[in-house]
Protein backbone atom coordinates (compact mmCIF):
# COMPACT_ATOMS: atom_id res chain seq x y z
CA UNK A 1 0.00 0.00 0.00
CA UNK A 2 2.85 2.39 0.81
CA UNK A 3 4.31 1.88 -2.68
CA UNK A 4 0.96 2.62 -4.31
CA UNK A 5 0.53 5.76 -2.22
CA UNK A 6 3.99 6.96 -3.21
CA UNK A 7 3.24 6.36 -6.90
CA UNK A 8 -0.06 8.23 -6.64
CA UNK A 9 1.65 11.10 -4.84
CA UNK A 10 4.37 11.23 -7.51
CA UNK A 11 1.79 11.22 -10.30
CA UNK A 12 -0.18 14.02 -8.67
CA UNK A 13 3.02 16.01 -8.22
CA UNK A 14 3.88 15.62 -11.92
CA UNK A 15 0.39 16.66 -13.02
CA UNK A 16 0.44 19.62 -10.66
CA UNK A 17 3.88 20.62 -11.91
CA UNK A 18 2.73 20.55 -15.53
CA UNK A 19 -0.29 22.64 -14.58
CA UNK A 20 1.92 25.21 -12.89
CA UNK A 21 4.19 25.33 -15.95
CA UNK A 22 1.36 25.84 -18.43
CA UNK A 23 -0.42 28.49 -16.34
CA UNK A 24 2.74 30.57 -15.96
CA UNK A 25 2.18 31.15 -12.25
CA UNK A 26 5.84 30.41 -11.54
CA UNK A 27 7.10 32.29 -14.60
CA UNK A 28 10.34 34.09 -13.82
CA UNK A 29 11.37 31.74 -11.04
CA UNK A 30 13.99 29.00 -11.28
CA UNK A 31 11.38 26.29 -10.69
CA UNK A 32 9.07 27.82 -13.27
CA UNK A 33 11.77 27.98 -15.95
CA UNK A 34 12.71 24.35 -15.29
CA UNK A 35 9.08 23.20 -15.58
CA UNK A 36 8.57 25.17 -18.82
CA UNK A 37 11.68 23.53 -20.31
CA UNK A 38 10.35 20.05 -19.49
CA UNK A 39 6.95 20.83 -21.01
CA UNK A 40 8.52 22.11 -24.24
CA UNK A 41 10.66 18.98 -24.65
CA UNK A 42 7.77 16.51 -24.34
CA UNK A 43 5.53 16.38 -27.46
CA UNK A 44 1.89 17.29 -27.12
CA UNK A 45 -0.83 14.68 -27.87
CA UNK A 46 -1.53 16.33 -31.23
CA UNK A 47 2.13 15.95 -32.18
CA UNK A 48 2.00 12.27 -31.27
CA UNK A 49 -0.95 11.83 -33.64
CA UNK A 50 0.81 13.61 -36.50
CA UNK A 51 3.90 11.43 -36.10
CA UNK A 52 1.92 8.20 -36.19
CA UNK A 53 0.20 9.27 -39.37
CA UNK A 54 3.45 10.17 -41.08
CA UNK A 55 4.91 6.72 -40.44
CA UNK A 56 1.93 4.84 -41.88
CA UNK A 57 2.88 4.44 -45.53
CA UNK A 58 1.44 2.17 -48.19
CA UNK A 59 2.87 0.85 -51.45
CA UNK A 60 0.53 0.62 -54.40
CA UNK A 61 1.60 -1.91 -56.99
CA UNK A 62 0.31 -1.59 -60.52
CA UNK A 63 0.77 -3.45 -63.78
CA UNK A 64 4.00 -1.57 -64.46
CA UNK A 65 5.93 -3.46 -61.80
CA UNK A 66 8.99 -1.94 -60.15
CA UNK A 67 12.32 -1.08 -61.74
CA UNK A 68 15.05 -3.70 -61.74
CA UNK A 69 18.51 -2.13 -61.82
CA UNK A 70 21.27 -4.58 -60.91
CA UNK A 71 24.04 -2.73 -62.70
CA UNK A 72 25.55 -1.32 -59.50
CA UNK A 73 25.32 -4.67 -57.77
CA UNK A 74 27.16 -6.26 -60.67
CA UNK A 75 29.90 -3.63 -60.73
CA UNK A 76 30.74 -4.19 -57.07
CA UNK A 77 31.95 -7.73 -57.66
CA UNK A 78 35.43 -8.36 -58.97
CA UNK A 79 34.08 -11.02 -61.33
CA UNK A 80 31.45 -8.78 -62.88
CA UNK A 81 33.47 -6.20 -64.77
CA UNK A 82 31.68 -5.15 -67.97
CA UNK A 83 32.25 -7.42 -70.94
CA UNK A 84 33.10 -5.17 -73.86
CA UNK A 85 31.47 -6.56 -76.96
CA UNK A 86 30.03 -4.90 -80.01
CA UNK A 87 27.39 -7.54 -80.62
CA UNK A 88 24.80 -9.24 -78.45
CA UNK A 89 22.43 -11.86 -79.83
CA UNK A 90 19.13 -10.36 -78.69
CA UNK A 91 17.17 -13.39 -79.86
CA UNK A 92 19.07 -15.70 -77.50
CA UNK A 93 18.39 -13.40 -74.53
CA UNK A 94 14.72 -12.97 -75.40
CA UNK A 95 14.10 -16.66 -76.03
CA UNK A 96 15.70 -17.64 -72.73
CA UNK A 97 13.56 -15.13 -70.83
CA UNK A 98 10.48 -16.41 -72.65
CA UNK A 99 11.20 -20.03 -71.70
CA UNK A 100 11.93 -19.16 -68.07
CA UNK A 101 8.75 -17.08 -67.87
CA UNK A 102 6.49 -19.87 -69.08
CA UNK A 103 8.28 -22.39 -66.86
CA UNK A 104 7.45 -20.15 -63.91
CA UNK A 105 3.81 -19.87 -64.93
CA UNK A 106 3.55 -23.64 -65.39
CA UNK A 107 4.88 -24.13 -61.86
CA UNK A 108 2.04 -21.92 -60.64
CA UNK A 109 -0.56 -23.82 -62.66
CA UNK A 110 -1.07 -20.92 -65.07
CA UNK A 111 -1.45 -20.75 -68.83
CA UNK A 112 1.59 -20.32 -71.06
CA UNK A 113 1.93 -16.90 -72.65
CA UNK A 114 2.00 -16.72 -76.43
CA UNK A 115 4.35 -14.47 -78.38
CA UNK A 116 2.72 -11.48 -80.03
CA UNK A 117 4.42 -9.44 -82.75
CA UNK A 118 2.81 -6.13 -81.73
CA UNK A 119 3.80 -6.56 -78.10
CA UNK A 120 7.28 -7.50 -79.32
CA UNK A 121 7.61 -4.26 -81.29
CA UNK A 122 6.38 -2.25 -78.30
CA UNK A 123 8.86 -4.03 -76.02
CA UNK A 124 11.72 -3.32 -78.46
CA UNK A 125 10.85 0.38 -78.48
CA UNK A 126 10.57 0.54 -74.70
CA UNK A 127 13.89 -1.28 -74.22
CA UNK A 128 15.61 1.37 -76.36
CA UNK A 129 13.83 4.18 -74.52
CA UNK A 130 15.03 2.94 -71.14
CA UNK A 131 18.59 3.76 -72.13
CA UNK A 132 17.50 7.41 -72.08
CA UNK A 133 15.05 7.16 -69.19
CA UNK A 134 15.06 4.01 -67.08
CA UNK A 135 11.53 4.53 -65.85
CA UNK A 136 7.94 3.53 -66.51
CA UNK A 137 7.55 7.12 -67.65
CA UNK A 138 8.66 7.45 -71.24
CA UNK A 139 11.27 10.06 -72.29
CA UNK A 140 8.40 12.21 -73.58
CA UNK A 141 6.81 12.20 -70.11
CA UNK A 142 3.92 9.88 -70.99
CA UNK A 143 2.94 6.49 -69.59
CA UNK A 144 4.57 3.42 -71.18
CA UNK A 145 1.46 2.17 -72.94
CA UNK A 146 1.21 5.23 -75.18
CA UNK A 147 3.98 3.50 -77.13
CA UNK A 148 1.25 1.62 -79.01
CA UNK A 149 -0.80 4.47 -80.43
CA UNK A 150 2.15 6.81 -80.98
CA UNK A 151 3.94 4.24 -83.13
CA UNK A 152 0.97 2.95 -85.08
CA UNK A 153 0.85 -0.34 -83.18
CA UNK A 154 -2.74 -1.56 -83.17
CA UNK A 155 -3.26 -3.64 -80.03
CA UNK A 156 -6.71 -3.13 -78.48
CA UNK A 157 -6.28 -4.67 -75.05
CA UNK A 158 -8.26 -5.65 -71.99
CA UNK A 159 -5.18 -5.60 -69.79
CA UNK A 160 -1.54 -4.72 -70.38
CA UNK A 161 1.57 -4.58 -68.20
CA UNK A 162 5.28 -3.85 -68.32
CA UNK A 163 8.42 -5.08 -66.55
CA UNK A 164 11.76 -3.31 -67.00
CA UNK A 165 15.25 -4.50 -66.13
CA UNK A 166 18.85 -3.47 -66.69
CA UNK A 167 22.20 -4.97 -65.78
CA UNK A 168 25.87 -4.55 -66.54
CA UNK A 169 26.72 -6.87 -69.42
CA UNK A 170 29.38 -9.28 -68.15
CA UNK A 171 28.10 -12.80 -68.95
CA UNK A 172 27.02 -14.57 -72.11
CA UNK A 173 23.51 -14.09 -73.50
CA UNK A 174 21.81 -16.99 -71.71
CA UNK A 175 23.40 -16.15 -68.38
CA UNK A 176 22.43 -12.49 -68.71
CA UNK A 177 18.85 -13.55 -69.44
CA UNK A 178 18.85 -15.70 -66.31
CA UNK A 179 20.35 -12.88 -64.25
CA UNK A 180 17.63 -10.46 -65.30
CA UNK A 181 14.85 -13.01 -64.94
CA UNK A 182 15.96 -14.07 -61.45
CA UNK A 183 16.02 -10.41 -60.46
CA UNK A 184 12.41 -10.06 -61.59
CA UNK A 185 11.42 -13.19 -59.66
CA UNK A 186 12.93 -11.78 -56.47
CA UNK A 187 11.11 -8.47 -56.89
CA UNK A 188 7.51 -8.52 -55.67
CA UNK A 189 6.08 -6.17 -58.29
CA UNK A 190 7.81 -7.86 -61.21
CA UNK A 191 6.92 -11.32 -59.96
CA UNK A 192 3.24 -10.39 -59.63
CA UNK A 193 3.26 -9.22 -63.23
CA UNK A 194 4.81 -12.45 -64.48
CA UNK A 195 2.25 -14.67 -62.73
CA UNK A 196 -0.89 -12.66 -63.39
CA UNK A 197 -3.49 -15.13 -64.68
CA UNK A 198 -5.18 -12.41 -66.77
CA UNK A 199 -2.30 -12.23 -69.25
CA UNK A 200 -2.38 -14.26 -72.45
CA UNK A 201 0.41 -12.81 -74.60
CA UNK A 202 3.94 -11.46 -74.25
CA UNK A 203 6.49 -9.43 -76.15
CA UNK A 204 10.12 -9.28 -75.00
CA UNK A 205 12.57 -6.62 -76.11
CA UNK A 206 16.29 -6.23 -75.43
CA UNK A 207 18.71 -3.37 -76.03
CA UNK A 208 22.48 -3.12 -75.46
CA UNK A 209 24.30 0.22 -75.29
CA UNK A 210 27.85 -1.11 -75.13
CA UNK A 211 27.86 -1.49 -71.34
CA UNK A 212 24.36 -2.14 -70.03
CA UNK A 213 21.77 -4.64 -71.19
CA UNK A 214 18.16 -3.41 -71.02
CA UNK A 215 15.19 -5.78 -71.13
CA UNK A 216 11.45 -5.19 -71.34
CA UNK A 217 8.57 -7.59 -70.85
CA UNK A 218 5.34 -6.27 -72.35
CA UNK A 219 2.35 -8.34 -71.23
CA UNK A 220 -1.11 -8.13 -72.73
CA UNK A 221 -4.50 -9.65 -73.33
CA UNK A 222 -6.36 -8.45 -76.44
CA UNK A 223 -10.01 -7.52 -76.51
From TrEMBL:
Residues 100-219 form the SCP domain. It comes from the Bacteria. PANTHER family: SCP DOMAIN-CONTAINING PROTEIN. This is CAP domain-containing protein. It comes from Marinilactibacillus psychrotolerans.
